[in-house]
Amino acid sequence: MLYSDTELKKRIKAGCPVYYFYASDEALVRSAAAKVEKAFAEQAPDTTVLDGPNPRVEDVVLAAGTISFFGGRRLVMLPLIRPSQYSDKDLEELCGTLADTENAIFILTSVFEEKYGNIRPGKREQKLISACEKLGYSVQMARPGRSELQKMIRECAAQNGTSFAPGAETALLDRCGEDQFLLQNEVAKLSALSGYTTITVDMIEMLGTVTLEADTFEMVRMVCAGNTRQAMAKLRTLLELQNEPIMITGALIGNYLDIYRMFLALKSRRKADDVAKDFRYTGKWNTRLRNAAQTASRMKRTQIEQSLHILQKLDSDLKGSRLDAEILMQKALCELALARRTQ
Q1: pTM, 2 dp
Q2: Which is deepest, 109, 156, 206, 338, by most CB within 10 Å?
């Protein structure tokens, strides 16, 4: 079952005793759990939090059986629980405890690995999910789409008395990806930088946090747009930030491989999720392959293949040449720019 805000409110109003939220993104389950905790704050003011991937069943039983000081039901929270780390016997006892306790409200959360855009709970995970479905509200939190993320960061900015200039929301998502914790932290940082007025694209480019993968893809886009000098400046910045030349080169190769794969996919009318499945992409691959597809649509196969040969030679040179690494990398960037101009 997928999460529904309306359904959650109905379950809370009905006094549902068990809530289990699971997703591939920690921010999603934390947000849902916080809504339940806030809703029950008045009638269940006593809260016990049992941290750890597999709290002892004895501790869960003790927490659930403890009478609230205020006379209501006790709130028992099991954040980021991992059913796979329980034995079959202990998991059975945990499910039994959830079913038999009358004086507690349980809130459980789990984060499962995502593959090809989907999460696949294992046998023990499915057992806990099924048990919680029978007892209360057990749901998967779907990853928000790009429009939902834009709405989220707008709301975060508004809470700080800040707004986004045209194009700034898109720039922030392109730069930081889809990690909600990172996006919320970036909005807070950029709001302060703007003096709590308006966040601009220039501010995001100046201060926004990015991954090495995102930074190197920005270099690729600069090269493909003919902005070799800007790509050189980006390379110098990455080296000054103590990024290893071989790691930068590896990220560049990965970016060009993404472009090559999406180029072939576009030619055969296949989609990004097909590429993700064929090449076993994990994690947040949506933005990565979408950006690769945009660049691939403006390139020819011979240009991409030549670029990969250039980077392969750079990787070999960095591992075996005595020449300065920055000089070798600058030379490779110039060669990539020339390859982009070939017919």
Answers
A1: 0.56
A2: 109
